Amino acid sequence: MKYRDNGKKVIIYLTGRIDASNIAETECRIREILVGYTGYDAVLDASDLMYISSAGLRIIMKISRIVDNKLRIINCTDEVYEIFFVTGFTDILDVNKASDGLLTE
């Protein structure tokens, strides 16, 4: 899993599928990355995420609770955004189809 730090935020790039087959590994890796960025906003870039299951959504919710500042999910494909929308995650998390200049702030 790739990530980068822009000085104010840590951006984690999600790829492929997040489902029961890789959920433990995905959660562990995201947590490992976030440990080094205490006090940063966390951004999950979903531009290369093809699918997220209910197990993946649970991990996103758990991660949102451990982030010191704000967790944002950006660059969702229409299909992935629809999953977040239908499950109500767009009402409780900052989920967007675009980055809206977030990465340059």
What secondary-structure arrangement, pairings included, does this model have?
Layout: E1 2-5, E2 9-18, H1 23-35, E3 41-52, H2 54-66, E4 71-74, H3 78-86, H4 89-92, E5 94-95
Parallel strand pairs: 2-3, 3-4, 4-5
Antiparallel strand pairs: 1-2
Helix pairs in contact: 1-2
Structural features:
alpha/beta; 4 helices; 105 residues; 5-stranded mixed beta sheet; single chain; Transcription Regulator spoIIAA; 5 strands
Describe this structure in words.
37% of the residues lie in helices and 30% in strands. It has a five-stranded mixed sheet. Helix 1 runs parallel beside helix 2. It is of the alpha/beta class and 105 residues long. The relative contact order is 0.19. The model has no long low-confidence stretch (mean pLDDT 91). The chain has a single domain, classed as Transcription Regulator spoIIAA, CATH 3.30.750. The chain is globular, with a radius of gyration of 12 Å. The chain is built from four helices and five strands; from the N terminus they run E-E-H-E-H-E-H-H-E.
Give the gist of this structure.
The chain has 105 residues and is of the alpha/beta class. The longest helix is centred in the N-terminal third of the chain and has 13 residues, at 23-35.
Q: Which architecture per CATH?
A: 2-Layer Sandwich
CATH H level, superfamily name: STAS domain
H/E element sequence: EEHEHEHHE
Tell me the strand order in the biggest sheet. Answer: 1-2-3-4-5
Number of helices: 4
Distance between the termini: 23 Å
The overall pLDDT average reads 91
The total count of strands amounts to 5
CATH topology: Transcription Regulator spoIIAA
* CATH class membership: Alpha Beta
